[in-house]
Amino acid sequence: MSFGKKDEDAESRGVFFDKSQVLLETRVFNETPLNPRKSRLLLGKVLTLLYTGEHLTRAEATDLFFATTKLFQNKDPGLRQIIYLLIKELADKADDVLMVTSSLTKDINAKPEELFASPNLLSSAAASFGFSFGSRTTSLSSASAALGAGAGPGAILGTNVCHRANALRAICRIMDPSTIPAIERFLKQAIVDRTAAVSTAALVSSYHVFPVARDLVRRWVNEVQEALTSPKVTSTSPSAYLSTGYIVQYHALGLLYLIRQADRMAVAKLVQSLARTSNVRSQWAQCMLVRFAVKCCEDESASFGGKNMVSVDGSLSAAMYEYLKSLCNNNDMVMLEAARALVSMVNSTPASLTATQVQPAVTALQQLLVSPKPALKFAALRTLHQLAQVNASLVTACNLDMEQLVSDSNRSIATFAITTLLKTGTESSVDRLMKQISSFMSEISDEFKVIIIDAIRVLAVKFPAKQAVMLSFLASVLRDEGGYEYKRSVVEAIFDLVKVLPDCLETALAHLCEFIEDCEFTKLAVRILHLLGAEGPKTRDPAKYLRYIYNRVILENSNVRAAAVTALAAFGAHVDSVRPTVRVLLTRCLDDPDDEVRDRATFNLAALDQADLRAQYLLNDTVLAVPTLQAKLAHYTAAGDFAHAVDVAAVPRIPKAELVPARRRAGSPTRGGAMNSPMLGSPAMRTMTPTLGPATPTPAAQAAAPGGASTQWLEKEPLLAPLLPTLFKSTSSVALTDRELEYHVSLVKHVFRDWLVLEIEVVNTMPEVLLENVAVSLVPDTPIDTVMKQMAVVPIASLKAHDPQRVFVAFQRAPGAVPTVSFATKLTMTVKDCDPVTHVPDSDQGYPEEFAVEDVDVTLADYMLPTTVPDFSSAWDALDEPSQVVETLQVPGIPTLAVAVAQIVDLLGMRALEGSNMVPAEKHAHTLVLGGVFLGGVPVLVRVRMVLDAGAQAVAMEVAVRAGVPEVAQVVAQALQG
Amino acid sequence: MNLTLYTVKALILLDVSNGSRVLAKYYNTGAPSSAATSPVATGPAPTATEFATPKDQKVFERRLWEKTRKLLNNEIILFDNHVVVYKGMADVMLFVVGSLEENELMLSSVLNTLYEAINLVLLKYQTEKRTIIENMDLVALAIDECIDNGIVIETDPGTIASRVSKRPSELADISFNDPNSISGAMNKVRDSFFAGILLK
């Protein structure tokens, strides 16, 4: 094995041996007598080939495999061990690997003295151990006796034990589901073997085969339990490896969880009993236990709807919390795991831990921060960083330690320190931090830069007084080199600043104008031009931006030119003084080589000149709700009936401003980069993205999209799918049961032109039960036969656990009828006991069951889509005076006007316009204006004048309704009376 | 949260000078979260989607090497949605790759165990690429005694070293006083343990 003459060049490429030559050499395996040393060295070469990524064809691998099996003839332990390894490596590369089963089985069952009885080795090994064990013979022989192996020398025993373990691990790799039962007996025995190595090998092997042999492995649960609770003392040598025996617990615990994981109660019991005692000695097992404990708490809080988990005395979570807390001064590894577990329980829900409760975790992490080991510092910082995302104030105690780490030589640590400090920092420390950041900004990779920019963005919003510093920093990094993602994050940070802090608008726009002068990213240029068009006209001197924008028309590609044309038109539309200039500039664009640019220029020129067109197209800040429009168009084209035009009136409008946050979120899945998003996989993750503006789309915006995803099940239902082109609205999903009940039921209402379809989703949470013929019985509270008739019920044939399925109930309404009704609702079904895994029922006999759920209400809001109009008063005037219906009401039991507004909006399902849903505090009179589209595309406007009588807790209101159709106005007004 | 025993996604040894592979083992850990989220999951679900082809693996190694070669003392890095801990040994680098949510100290413990165990079986604290290739049988067995298909099975380097069998003797080779032979290694290991015990 000399390297001297090897090709140095090949070696440096990671090619050490020639494959064909090595394979040729395996012929020595057939020689008699076999040279074990030579064979082992050759197998080493084969392993090198495999590990360096050399590809073996199936035939080559099979040949090699069978050549290797010949080596079983030799009993040398050193050779045997490497054969096992090679079998494992080739198990999925070669064919017919089952051939070696019997050889391996023999090794597993061999008595110690039978295996490797080569006298030479025996004596040599005995001799070698004779030296070192000189003074320890008593314990040595007692260990041997304990094994029941007679007086065999310890060294051979050790090797044998090792080989039993190796053979076990190898045999599981070559088995397939059909052959595993054959080795069940050995595996089961080996799990409870007194020797750590054998027990571990058996446990790990069972773990590997679990997916294909779950029923078999389940039967060993008692053995696994025993392996967990009676830790091994490695018996091969007297007391040398005491510490390592406990690792078996790690494997036993892992396997036990795997077996029980479907059964929440069993897992909870297991975790609780182990947490109470201090039987778990292995650090690794403790870490696993911590994770299982967290899982239990998550499951519990999920099933109890997020009640405060720690305050409930005696509950599972309380016990778990005490356990985690006690681990916070354990050794580093467990401490980190426990601290991280506690941190993951801190989130914005009511179930979150309080500051005092999480304190032990913070203290523990603080200890790790000052460790000299990079891994420890890194781990602690990463966890603190996560905590800071949720609640920065909890981390402030560590600020001093973290500031030390800003200059750490490991850039990942430094970046985590900085981003965390940016979250926790106070206003006074911002300047210092910014200086430190700019000094190393050029040294780090783009993905870290993105993270830092995001942190700065949040900070800038937090401390408006510092916005000048931040903005100049952002502007300077914008000029640096960088990739698209990085530049985009900077630009978005500036966008956010502009949105939140109007003071910095002009400076920010100036920076952006400068940036697009030399911007290589078309997408960014387009977005900046759009922002200029939207915000520029509001500045004191709009004319100065025209030059920048028109420069783009001259210099850039067609996408940017088109965006620039639109931006120019925006200036022309909003600012009278620059309109002539814009006209001149747009006229020049009429000759543009690109048709989109020409089209936009022509359109805008025409619109600019006429005041009414200008108002309708250029100054209109509402747009059609795209998801609704899309669904409508899809159904229209699918229906194939093109005699009628698409009914655009039935598509609600929403303000442009609401489109932006949704689009931004959708457009930046990588926000937060590698470090944030899936970091520790905890529930806290959801709150981490530092989005500005509304955190979720307003309810109105959600309702405007008619249930987007929820028609997907309807489309699959052959009976109901033909109705889809007449779909008016789908409501969002409403739960009809509490979370802790055995069945979870939720409802979506689909309203069609003439039909009403209830989609009732049922989830069975009990694995041991199979539901069949699940249907729904609906009893109306008032007679509805004249206006609505139940035409069809589509039941669920068979419902397995955790597999959501849907019942559909279809009603046909009389033409023009919009009945409001409340149904007393219950599920009817046949319950059968079944196997929790295969879901095969135990018998054909089931028993009928009824399950009452909350009432299903069909209200007026179901026939209404919220919409917006550009200008309420002109729209109000445009609707006919005669259609107006006015009612006056006195509503008792309402403490504030805000409550009244919320109730009305909720009841009518319309959208509050012109910000009238915001009632200033301390005000006693308010006017609420609402916009909506009624079934059939009838526009509806409502004006509610209300006065609060604070003493009587009552609200007097005058409701005026105008609609495109008088009957509709009547219906809407009546709904409020009810 | 990783609720499975599958901890190590890959173990890689690279030449520090040019990033070429000395040894690499990728374990089928698959997506651990899939087993955790769905209550009726199909066991540990070893369905590897990343590192599926040798080409992916080589690309990953190359980028990892470029990223870390100048930062040998950093020991830990977030790379490509993985936590990677690493350590230089003479002219090679040893990497242990885990998932993003993994406990860094577990990975670091595996790394140190492997590092120590390889040194123990090779009996040289300057573990060079050439030594590793020449003694691949020993190194491979040491790794196999530490990690079984992504599951850490032993964390004590001494135990691992003692479980690695020595090479078959060609009688002339046997010399108990030769510190470079395996029996020498075993002696050394055992001596150090007994020294430890006696001190207690």
Automatic annotation (TrEMBL), chain A:
Coiled coil: none
Domain Coatomer gamma subunit appendage Ig-like subdomain span(s) in chain numbering: 725-859
InterPro entries, per database record: ARM-like, ARM-type_fold, Clathrin/coatomer_adapt-like_N, Clathrin_app_Ig-like_sf, Coatomer/calthrin_app_sub_C, Coatomer_g_Cpla, Coatomer_gsu, Coatomer_gsu_app_Ig-like_dom
Membrane topology: Peripheral membrane protein
GO biological process, one term: endoplasmic reticulum to Golgi vesicle-mediated transport
Region (Disordered) residue spans: 662-681
Molecular-function annotations in GO: structural molecule activity
Domain Coatomer subunit gamma C-terminal: 861-975
Superkingdom of source: Eukaryota
Alphabetic keyword roster: Cytoplasm, Cytoplasmic vesicle, ER-Golgi transport, Golgi apparatus, Membrane, Protein transport, Repeat, Transport
Primary residence: cytoplasm
All residue ranges annotated as the Clathrin/coatomer adaptor adaptin-like N-terminal domain in the record: 27-111, 160-611
UniProt KW Protein transport keyword: yes
Pfam families: Adaptin_N (PF01602), Coatomer_g_Cpla (PF16381), COP-gamma_platf (PF08752)
GO CC terms: COPI vesicle coat; endoplasmic reticulum; endoplasmic reticulum-Golgi intermediate compartment; Golgi membrane
PANTHER family noted in UniProt: COATOMER SUBUNIT GAMMA, COATOMER SUBUNIT GAMMA-2
Subunit note: Oligomeric complex that consists of at least the alpha, beta, beta', gamma, delta, epsilon and zeta subunits.
Family listed: Belongs to the COPG family.
Listed name of the protein: Coatomer subunit gamma
Source organism: Allomyces macrogynus (strain ATCC 38327) (Allomyces javanicus var. macrogynus)
From TrEMBL, chain B:
Keyword Methyltransferase: no
AP complex mu/sigma subunit domain span: 51-166
Pfam short name (any one): Clat_adaptor_s
Membrane topology: Peripheral membrane protein
Subunit text: Oligomeric complex that consists of at least the alpha, beta, beta', gamma, delta, epsilon and zeta subunits.
Originating organism: Allomyces macrogynus (strain ATCC 38327)
GO cellular component, one term: Golgi membrane
Subcellular location: Cytoplasm; Golgi apparatus membrane; Cytoplasmic vesicle, COPI-coated vesicle membrane
UniProt entry keywords in alphabetical sequence: Cytoplasm, Cytoplasmic vesicle, ER-Golgi transport, Golgi apparatus, Membrane, Protein transport, Transport
GO terms (BP aspect): intra-Golgi vesicle-mediated transport; intracellular protein transport; retrograde vesicle-mediated transport, Golgi to endoplasmic reticulum
Main subcellular localisation: cytoplasm
General function of this protein: The coatomer is a cytosolic protein complex that binds to dilysine motifs and reversibly associates with Golgi non-clathrin-coated vesicles, which further mediate biosynthetic protein transport from the ER, via the Golgi up to the trans Golgi network. Coatomer complex is required for budding from Golgi membranes, and is essential for the retrograde Golgi-to-ER transport of dilysine-tagged proteins. The zeta subunit may be involved in regulating the coat assembly and, hence, the rate of biosynthetic protein transport due to its association-dissociation properties with the coatomer complex.
Protein name, UniProt field: Coatomer subunit zeta
Superkingdom of this protein's organism: Eukaryota
